[in-house]
Amino acid sequence: MSTRRGNGEGTKPVKQADGRWVVKVTVGTRLNAKGQRVARRRNVYGATSAEARRAAQEVVRQAEAGVLVLDKGTTLEQWMTHWLEGPAATRVKPATLDAYKSLNRVWITPTLGHVRLHKLTPEHIEHLHRVMREGGRAGSMIQKAHRVLSRALKVAVQRGHLVANPCARVDVPSAERTEITPLTGAEARQLLASAATTAQPARWTLALSLGLRQSEVLGLCWDKVDLKAGTITIDQQWARPVAGVPARFATLKNDTSSERVLKLPAALIEQLRAQRTTQLEERVQAGEKWTPHVQDGKTYEPVFARADGRPVRHQTDRAHWKALLQVAGVPDVRLHDARHTAATIMLQLGVPARVVMEILGHSTITLTMNTYSHVMPELIADAADRLNTLLTPAASAGSERSVPKSVPGTVGGEVSRLPSAGNE
Predict the structure, then answer these.
(1) Which of 138, 360, 387, 418 makes a 20 to 30 Å CA pair with 78?
(2) CATH assignment of 185-375, given 3.20.20.30, 1.20.1250.20, 1.10.443.10, 3.50.30.60?
């Protein structure tokens, strides 16, 4: 009496004319000539009926585990779909995955999706660049699409589906540098003066003094604020809703470099104390309407909350920024330019670039220096002036070799040891 075959076992083994046994199994889906998604099947062979069944079960297991079983008919579209739904989805954050899917949907698949995976060449990659460039896309977007495709094909190489990654043999398109338009020091002070009349002035002082990202400010909760020590801990963000996932508290963009403990200016500490007092009063008045955000069993109390205690929406926060710019009468710049303003002012004040890097949460000093290269000519000129002041000897009636008393580090005409950091 025959028994019913279970899911994943494939068809009943059939003996072929050459003596081998074959089992047909389903290993995913594919698009047919009409653009419809249908089952994708593969023949699995064995010397015996039992061997064919075992081989079929292993093929199904690999497919379910995310190791796509390919044949020569597999297209780039099929591989990209598999990579985005499997390997990429487990390694990147939702917002990043959403960006990957968008680039694939709009550019990669429409341009190269029909090409069979094993037949991809560097010329195909260059064709994608050309199509995007002719479509008016900026170099930065072409660069992003190239890197997404390269990462997907790198996994294909690692799993033995490709011999080499064709993207590695094509130059990565250069990205145009985005012009940074920070506010001047005078404009920043003017903006903060106007912010002092708003309900939450600390919100804008944080942006213009420490250069926090919008998501970092909105994700700042009271358990991360130590008013006694005068510090805040930046280790989470209020992430935007993406791909059907609602707004939520999440780890930072770069978990290693972005996490930081920052010392607060005295004026900002006082603003945060006032913010805390005001918020507690609002909470009492709201009563049962006060409903802080609860996520994964944890209650979050954001420093900058809505009237019901929940985090401020990103678009609402941006609208408040634009309104503040108008009231202050300063140039209409992006909210992210508040971050650029803070960094520019810190560098102009002589704060070491390494310290600025740590405050901003940049991953490398190179990123900081490249981003704010517009400040470098001014800093170089200032350094030259300081060196000139130090190295130009004052007029003296004595010998040219005499050391002026104004030069620090000298005693009685002889060079003394420089003071240690602890004595400065």
Answers:
(1) 138
(2) 1.10.443.10
Pick the CATH number of 76-169 from 1.20.1250.20, 1.10.10.1590, 3.40.1170.10, 1.10.150.130: 1.10.150.130
Per-domain residue ranges of the chain = 14-64, 76-169, 185-375
Residue 253 CA neighbour count, 13 Å, CB half: 13
Determine the length of the chain. Answer: 424
* Contact by Cβ (8 Å): 361, 258: yes
Distance between CA 134 and CA 264 in Å, rounded?
48
Phi, psi of 37 (to 5 degrees): -90, 120
Q: Which residues of 8-46 are buried (b: 16+ CB within 10 A; e: fewer)?
A: eebeebeeeeeebbbbebbbbebbeeeeeeeebebbbeb
pTM equals: 0.63
Helices (H) and strands (E) in the chain, counts: 15, 12
pLDDT < 70: residue spans in the chain: 1-9, 27-37, 62-72, 176-178, 243-244, 253-257, 379, 393-424
Q: How far apart are CA 358 and CA 261, in angstroms?
A: 9
